[in-house]
Every structure is written in C-alpha cells, then in structure tokens.
Amino acid sequence: MVQPSEPEFEQAYNELLSTLKDSTLFEKRPDLEKVIPIVSIPERIIQFRVVWENDAGQVQVNRGYRVQFNSALGPFKGGLRFHPTVNLSVLKFLGYEQIFKNALTGLNMGGGKGGSDFDPKGKSDSEIRRFCYAFMTELHRHIGADTDVPAGDINVGGREIGYLFGAYKKYSNSWEGVLTGKGLSWGGSLIRPEATGFGVVYYVEKMIEYATQGKENFKGKRVAISGSGNVAQYAALKVIELGGIVASLSDSKGAFIAKEGVSFTPAEIEEIAELKLKRKSLSELAEKYAAKFDYIEGARPWVHVGKVDVALPSATQNEVSGEEAATLVANGCKFIAEGSNMGSTQEAIDVFEAERLKSPNGIWYAPGKAANAGGVAVSGLEMAQNSQRSSWSTQEVDQKLKEIMVNIFNNCVNTAVEYSSEKGDALPSLVKGANIAGFVKVAEAMHNHGDFW
C-alpha cells in the first residue's frame, strides 16, 4: 500500500487507519478490516510525459499524472494540481483523502487526483495554453463524464480549466461535463469558486452551535486564516458576513497579522484576490496595509496571531505543526477546521485531540475531508446540472451547499458517538467520525460490487 518514498501518502494512510482502530468499528464490523489493504491501492495510476513549447520556441517537458483511486461510489472525482512539488506521493495522499471526502458529501462520486510538476508562475497565457493542450493530449483518453471528472486545484483556476476543456472537446469531439469549475456560460455552476471557503465556515458554524448548545455563533469571534487563494478569500468573506473578525491571511512568502481590534474588510480581501490573480506576493501590499496589519516575512500566522477563537488552515498540507497547535491551544482557540487538505501534521492532530478530551470545552478539530468538502460538493452539483442541461440560481446552489455541509457535520458527530471507545463527556471526535463514516460507505459499496467477500 505505502511505498518507502511516499511520506505524504503514508501520513494519510496511517491517520485513517489509526482512527479506525482507535474506535469500536472493527469490533462491531470485523468484516470491514479486510477492506483497508484493498481500498488503499489505486485502481489505476496513469503517468505520462507532457512536451510543450515556450514562447522562445524551446521544447519543455514535464511529468503528468492521474491517480484513479476508487470508483465504488461514482466516477473518479478530484482536482488537477500544477505545482513543482507534485509527485505520486502527494497525489496519492490527495486522492486517498478524496475517496472519503466525496463519500461524505452523499453524492455519487469516487476519488481521484492528478496534475503535473509544471509551474505556471512566470509563464505567459500562451505558454499555459500550450501546456494545457499538451497535457490533455494524453489525459483525454482516460477521463469522461461517467468515468473520471477532474476539477481545479492549486494553480488550476478558471483560465486553466477553460484551456483544458477546450482541448478535451477538440480531441474527443464531445461536449460533456468532463471538468468542473467551468465558466458560467459553458456549463459551470454558480457558487463553485466560493464553495470550499463558504463550506468550511458553514461547517464551523455548526461546530460552534453544537459546542455552545446554540448560545454562540461567529459574531465577535476572532478568526485566524492561512492562505490567500480562493478558499481563504471566501472563508474570510463569509466570516465577516456572519459577524466575525478576520485576524490573518498569508501566502508562501509571509503573513499579515491584524493589529488589536482590527479585521480585514471585504474591500481588502478583494484587493488581495486581484493581487493573487496576477500571481504576486502579499508583501507587495505590506507598506500600504502597515497601519492595520503587521507583515511577517517567511511566517505562518499561528504563533503570531495571538488570541483567537477559530483557526482555519486554508493554504496547503501540513501547515500546522505540533508546536503551532500547542500555541493555538494556549491562545484560547476553541475551533479549528481545515480548509486545506491534511492541513495539520499528525503531531498537531494529537495535540488537538488530547486537548479535546480534557474537558467538554476543549478545542474541537475538524479534518479537511469533512470541513472542506464544500468545493467537491458543488462540483458534484455542477455535474448534476450538466447532466440535466440546466443551471441553478445562486440561492439554490448555496442552499444545497449549506445542507450538504450540515449533513456532513451531523454524520460525523453521529458516527463518532456510535463508534466511540472514549469515556467521559468530551465533544465527539470529528476526525474519527469523518474517517469512519466515509470509510464505511465506500467499503459497503465495494462489498456490494464483489470487490471483497
């Protein structure tokens, strides 16, 4: 299942397995333990070279991948990532998480992931278009509306999805809902750009309501957010809309930390969004924002942000260390939910789970496979709209998104309670609830298909 050179996948595999074993699942359902080695190997891995030409007429070559991990619940579904750090370990970890995340949405979607070690930063539109067409030359053979439906991920936004869709249509001679995150005039869904960020806030809204028995909500809560891409931007906007205070945003070069009593405003988040569309660093706004925000070069927000109520890691994997988790706890953070995939290291999760057990008011941690499922949920809704050849209103999609996130939260809580081996009155483990609920749904489908007996 796990290869020696696959640390990210090993982390995801061990995190799932350890939570399943630290519950009563295999006591109550011993037949499901045999599924672990089967579900942990992808159904198929496609690797290929991508040869393209830069603006100087020079031939360039990159590696392309698609990990088709599990199709028990529906077509393979998961993003494409263009980043120099892309390798099989990263894509297997992301695809593995995607299986169970997609299961939690309640929609008919399997799990997969793909991408390339291509770096779009510093590339012209023409170079990115040529790369996307070259990438799709091979990928189009392996995907389709009822086979595998990729979406965007890091560095694959609306522009890239447009080029990839155009290439697929050209090579396959078929217009179909084969990619999600499409433009609104050619099959895209409203709320798709906002979905992951909105969804994580809807999930935390339920966490706060449950933990405080309905006495509290986001109003007045100080919220630390990392990242400054789509997820972070829309999470921040939704927090502000619900009365919260956004205390930080960041990128790979550094972090903005709000001064005492200050919050980011929608106008500032819009300005940051425009900056990021140009693939520029937050540091370019450091001087302009100096009166309201401290810019800390090379830092993540967690140890610098001070007292916070909520933390939303929304940048990349392993962005909260054990030490940073301990600092968040010490600074009074009560709720942490991952907008990014596997945003917390295992050491950080251990800190959060240990604190949760100390009292009914301990910190409550929600893993990405539950909290950030809003993005793929609306991708599933986009697939449904494509199948119907219809478009739903903003209100319809947003309402369906909120219902899905509430259902995921309730499923996580109920499953955690059902299979808990814990004593005491601590809040239910959302990481165990998410892992068990997603795993059981996939395992039962695989059993029904005869994948094991």
UniProtKB/TrEMBL annotation:
A molecular function (GO) term: nucleotide binding
PROSITE patterns: GLFV_DEHYDROGENASE (PS00074)
Keywords: NAD, NADP, Nucleotide-binding, Oxidoreductase
GO CC, one annotated term: cytosol
UniProt-annotated binding residues for NAD(+): T196, N230
UniProt xrefs under CDD domains: NAD_bind_2_Glu_DH (cd05313)
Positions of the record's site feature: Important for catalysis: D153
InterPro entries hit by this protein: Aminoacid_DH-like_N_sf (IPR046346), Glu/Leu/Phe/Val/Trp_DH (IPR006095), Glu/Leu/Phe/Val/Trp_DH_C (IPR006096), Glu/Leu/Phe/Val/Trp_DH_dimer (IPR006097), Glu/Leu/Phe/Val_DH_AS (IPR033524), Glu_DH (IPR014362), Glu_Leu_Phe_Val_DH (IPR050724), NAD(P)-bd_dom_sf (IPR036291)
Catalytic residues of the enzyme: K113 (proton donor)
Domain Glutamate/phenylalanine/leucine/valine/L-tryptophan dehydrogenase C-terminal: 189-450
Residues annotated to bind substrate: K77, Q98, K101, G152, S379
Keyword Oxidoreductase listed: yes
Keyword flag Translocase: no
Superkingdom, taxonomy of origin: Eukaryota
Transmembrane annotation, as ranges: none
Any one biological process term the GO annotation gives: glutamate biosynthetic process
Subunit and interaction comment: Homohexamer.
Family statement: Belongs to the Glu/Leu/Phe/Val dehydrogenases family.
PANTHER family documented for this protein: NADP-SPECIFIC GLUTAMATE DEHYDROGENASE 1-RELATED
Name of protein: Glutamate dehydrogenase
